[in-house]
């Protein structure tokens, strides 16, 4: 497959995850943000970001969008440090949920809604914890699903070198 076809598949998968009704923060977004660069290479980080930008155009832009896109970019860059085996990849994806949580909620705090104090920062992160649960569970779910697909598609001799 060429870059355009793979990028289109990334877009369709990401769009489906965002547009199909789902519980709050229960999507494949973090798993995709991690696995696309981990499996296909960092060359596909722009395809991920463009997919986010296009879907955000329809969903609606928000004040923390640059923090969201920035965390996706950083997760894509960090993926290369976790690619050696399935356990490391799943741990990397779960670590990515924490990266996303820290960066995007810092963005929320930077808007000033909670005040520019340490207490406001702590309140912001504390109030975000319930949303983190679904992010963590969904990322684990989709990471295992992706790993199963990878194992079914590629035998040990043909597994994509990442």
Task: Using brief descriptors, characterize the structure shown.
162 residues, mainly alpha, Arp2/3 complex 21 kDa subunit ARPC3, globular
Structural write-up:
It is a single chain. The chain contains six helices and no strands. It has one domain: Arp2/3 complex 21 kDa subunit ARPC3. The radius of gyration is 16 Å and the shape is globular. The protein starts with a helix and ends in a 9-residue tail after the last helix. The mean pLDDT is 92. It is an all-alpha fold and 162 residues long.
Short description:
The chain has six helices and no strands.
Q: Mind sketching the topology for me?
A:
Elements: H1 3-19, H2 29-40, H3 45-59, H4 65-78, H5 86-110, H6 118-153
Helix pairs in contact: 1-3, 2-4, 2-5, 2-6, 3-4, 4-5, 5-6
């Amino acid at each position: 497959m060429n870059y355009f076809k793979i990028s289109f598949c990334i877009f369709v998968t990401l769009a489906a995850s965002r547009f199909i009704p789902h519980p709050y923060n229960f999507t494949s977004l973090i798993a995709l943000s991690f696995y696309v660069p981990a499996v296909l290479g960092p060359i596909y980080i722009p395809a991920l970001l463009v997919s986010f930008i296009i879907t955000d155009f329809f969903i609606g832009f928000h004040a923390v969008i640059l923090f969201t896109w920035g965390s996706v970019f950083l997760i894509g860059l960090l993926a290369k440090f976790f690619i050696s085996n399935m356990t490391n990849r799943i741990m990397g994806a779960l670590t990515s949920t924490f990266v996303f949580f820290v960066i995007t909620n810092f963005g929320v705090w930077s808007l000033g809604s909670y005040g520019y104090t340490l207490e406001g920062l702590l309140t912001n992160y504390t109030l975000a914890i319930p949303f983190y649960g679904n992010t963590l569970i969904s990322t684990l779910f989709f990471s295992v699903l992706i790993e199963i697909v990878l194992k079914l598609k590629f035998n040990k001799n043909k597994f994509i070198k990442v």
